[in-house]
Specification:
817 residues, alpha/beta, Helicase, Ruva Protein, domain 3, Rossmann fold, 7-stranded mixed sheet, 5-stranded parallel sheet, 28 helices, 15% strand, elongated
Amino acid sequence: MSAVTPQELTAEQVRAKCDSILFECNSTADLKPIGTIIGQDRALNALKFGLSIQKTGFNIYVAGPAGTGKMTVIQSYLKTLASQKPVPPDWCYVHNFRDSYCPRALQVPAGTGLVLQKDMKELIDRCRHSIQQAFSSKEYGEQRSEIADEVNRKRESAFNVMSDKAKERGLLLKATQVGLALVPAANGQALSDEEYQNLNAEQKDELNKAREELTKDLKDTLAELQDDEAAAQKQLENTDHEVAGFAINHLFEELRIKYAELTQAVNYLDEVKKDVIENFGQFRTDGKPQETDPLTATMQEQARKLALKSYEVNVLVDNSELAGAPVVVDINPTFNNLFGRIEKEAQFGALSTDFTMIRCGSLHRASGGYLVVRIEDLLTNFQSWEGLKRTLRDNKLIIEDVGERLGYMAVKSLQPEPIPLDVKVIIIGERMFYQLLLQQDFQFSELFKIRADFDTQMDKNETNIKDYAAVLCRLCIEEEMRHLKSNALARIVEHSSRLADDRNKLSTMFASIADIVREANFYAGEDGTPVIETAHIDKALEQRVYRSNLIQQRINEMIETGMVIIDVEGEVVGQVNGLAVYDLGDFAFGRPSRITASVGVGREGLVDIEREAKLGGRLHTKGVMILNGYIHEKYVGDIPLSLSARLVFEQSYGEVDGDSASSTELYSLLSRLSGVPIKQNIAVTGSVNQKGEVQAIGGINEKIEGFFEVCRTKGFNGTHGVLMPASNVRNLMLKDEAVDAIREGTFHVYPVSTIDQGIEVLTGVKAGRVMEDGTFEPGSINDMVQKRLVSLAEKLRDFSKGEDKTEKNKSDAEAEA
């Protein structure tokens, strides 16, 4: 079957125009801004499901390229959802009176944390005042004096009795430096050593006997007095505790009534009350130094403050200003920022800390709501990623020092009581990271079971186009920019289709669209116009290109001056202008490259010089290998392929990859084999399969415009054009200059579906259909190619026979010798 001659495309086919009448307005000022998210139904359904199911592991990974507005969409959606949920409770840390190294977590209703903190501060101030007043009262002094006087009376009575007994036995009870002693006496006076020595033996024995007996009585009396003093001291302590308790009972009772419904808070108040009573002494001082030595006074003051600090309330999470569930976006998820930290301060050359220095992390603030983080930020903090997985698995938040976890710190630190976690984590990132985590981290799929995929395009229909305009209306209002006129809206819709790389789609890369509007608004301001016109959109797009196309301009200059050789006129055998795309990240452009083929006898088949020079990528190598399959199947069949062909991108000094030039290379090879020249005024792009079908490629607009610019620079002759895959027609959204040239007939675009169609356009010679005997129509391109391949096979066969005959004669000669 012969190839169907392709019809070149019209101006209307290479760019889909948008009619401004469709918007039914003069400008976006006449439209109602839309607050919903458009074009992301799949992602929103996944989000809705993931956020609704309250089970462990159903956290969400939002996948999609940058610029689709993932973060904006997620925040907007979550804030709407969060406003319908209850405000989560406050969390506080308080002193643990049983173990000061393990502060207790205290949960109170939202907004109560700061109130409790204030109440406790006032309570302690009032306790100090009340205790000082109670212990300075007359009644307390009299009560203490009465107890002390009773002890003194007992001591005095006991000593008098002992003294009388001693006198009766000739002894005197005397106080010495080491305590009470019984010494010999006469007439109420202690005997001197000389007087004692003058006593007879009987008197001495009697005195010694009396001393031994009375010493035992003295010890018993002293023991009884010590018991009495201990009892009195205990009575004094009980009295002090009773006085302290009486002084503060009513203060604590007020708060117990206020927080009666909060069991944890009431229990905490009871513990504080008990500790205040037990340590009432620290409340009796007025805070003034008791020592004149500055260092000692400072240390006393620090000790007093530290003691009183244990009654403070550290409000870790305050939700008093929330109107619903929290939505927290952590832009720097370090370990401390995510999980909280325990601060330290230097005192007297050493680091110290306490429960009031515990600080919350974003997970604490997000508990009861939603936490949003970017995967790139999270993975750059390895400890954060590991800690997040552990926290989501255990559903509890543990605040710890990352240095202690890694074994860098040997000093004992606080171990705050873990806080239960109730949060949905939404990670935003590229699809690449999602795939990598699935493959490399087995816990990832267990903890992030929902994937919300953001698309880069949506259907181009009347409803979506009007929604697009409503989104831009909202942008203009929110950022206080000029409104877009309807013709400017139409131009943005056209550019959106180009960004989507499909005339039947609209791009959802709203970040890029918004930037174009912002830039156009600037140019409208320069012109002093009240609205943004089409000219301002065009200028914004043109200036974007101008800021980034320096390399393109330099390459075109080299082509114009002949440094890079590109022929756009005439006909040459085995030479075609291929098209390639250079992607600079923020800007992509196309440029022609000369592709040539050389053919000779041999068994090597097709040799890709780019591959041999290690400049060809894997996809390009695959494309060249496909050509081998095409040649084998179409032309030689059972005949050995006796071909040695070289394919090369001329003046190419960098890596070449992709298969979009495989059809171009095939055309150059067919031209070389048939000897039929190819028109140099037509550039070619498109990949090919082994059946000879031309397949779609990427960057079609950039490639056509790249050759268009070169032809415009060299001068149009009315025949220039591009041969492209027919399956890429829907991707065409050429710039206005190219569209105008096509309309005027100075530039042409030919869509082809097969190699046969393409070779006829390039050579003007019929491709030729296959005959029943396997040959092709005489005089056709395919016929000439087949005959050339058969000729090469015969030449190789004859040459091989000659080699065999020469080798045989040589062997015979050696045998005769």
